[in-house]
Amino acid sequence: MRDNNLYEKGNNRYLNKKKTGEFRPLTVCIAAISNQGMFNEKKEPIPPCIVFCADKLVSAGIQFESIEAKIKRITNYCFAMTSGDAFVSDLILERVMQKVGNPEKPLKIEEVVRMLSKECFEYKKEWFENNVLWKYNLAFEKFKVTPESTVNNAVKEVGECQYQFEFEFIVLGIEPPQEAHLFYVNQDGAYRLQDSLGFVTIGIGAQLAFPQMTKYAYSRYTPLVTAIPMVYISKKISERMQGVGQNTDLAVLYNNKTKDSPFLPMLWVPSIQPDFMKQLDDTFATITKNESIELANISKKVQEWLDQRTKPPQS
């Protein structure tokens, strides 16, 4: 007869160390609200827009630059970007897109986020059922073990077992008539609104992209003409992190409203315009060069000051 020791947790690939908070999924994704500076063909001001970008590096045993975008369209007014375990996050986003469908009127962006949050939780639940709890169900049916002790062991194992997937989402979108929203969502379905900060970054590259965005005190009131280069430069800075690709998808989501169409979401994709991107790259190179020149100049001044301090006193 089998005893309860059968269900003692042993070492396997699902039992990992608890999260330390140090891990960040590969890639970088950045999104920022801009509330000023864009006009339609009639010279009328356009409501708030969102600048967003992502690299194109894929990690699947090996790392390579892909042509596949990490920017996923949920609706024509709502997009998502993801970092981490792409196979799982893509599946979750696909489930969300199926639920969203083609609604008659635009959904609130938070409604989409709640769907995403629920799907993250449901997938995690499925994973624990398929990889941990199935054997306890089998034990009830075939081994006739004591239910109380088996349940206790199942609860203990779930508590000790580390969910093996790590991924993050940015969900961005615009709502009629003049609202733009940014949300951060993690693999557990926890989410937060980022509107007050004005931008959000995810992935390993966020460690450099975030401070770069704060360098010039970015806010959601930053004009679009400044927001685009700031977001792009932050992405370029993040390329110093291993796991961030050099190719970039860069886009702007805005409401090109008119008197006849108060809500007309549009997507402008600067990254498919080589001349435009070359200007951004040239500007980034110039800024980097000038910083190096100024650092060299101040280093000379410091050296002169040190030389004065170390000169022997004159008799």
Shape: globular
Radius of gyration: 25 Å
Poorly predicted segments: 1-22
| Portion of residues within helices | 40-55%
Total discrete domains: 2
Structural class: alpha+beta
Q: Which strand order does the major sheet show?
A: 10-1-2-11-12
CATH secondary-structure class of the largest domain:
Alpha Beta
Total of DSSP H or I helical runs spanning 4+ residues: 6
Number of strands: 12
Averaged pLDDT = 83
**What is the N-to-C order of secondary-structure elements (H for helix, E for strand)?**
EEEEEEHHHEEEEHHEEH
CATH topology of the largest domain, by name, is: Glutamine Phosphoribosylpyrophosphate, subunit 1, domain 1
The largest sheet is: 5 strands, antiparallel
CATH architecture of the largest domain: 4-Layer Sandwich
CATH superfamily of the largest domain, please? Answer: Aminohydrolase, N-terminal nucleophile (Ntn) domain
> How many angstroms separate the termini?
99 Å
Could you characterize what this model shows?
This protein has 315 residues and is α+β, with helices and mostly antiparallel strands. The chain is built from six helices and twelve strands. It has helices spanning 86-100, 109-143, 147-160, 206-215, 224-238, 274-310, and strands spanning 29-34, 49-55, 57-60, 62-65, 71-75, 78-84, 167-175, 179-186, 191-193, 199-202, 248-255, 265-268. The strands form three sheets. It has a five-stranded antiparallel β-sheet, with helices on one face. A five-stranded antiparallel β-sheet has the order 5-6-7-8-9, covered by helices on one side. A hairpin with a 1-residue loop joins strand 3 and strand 4 (62-65). Helix 4 (206-215) runs antiparallel to helix 5. The longest helix has 37 residues, at 274-310. It is globular and about 85 Å long. The relative contact order is 0.19.
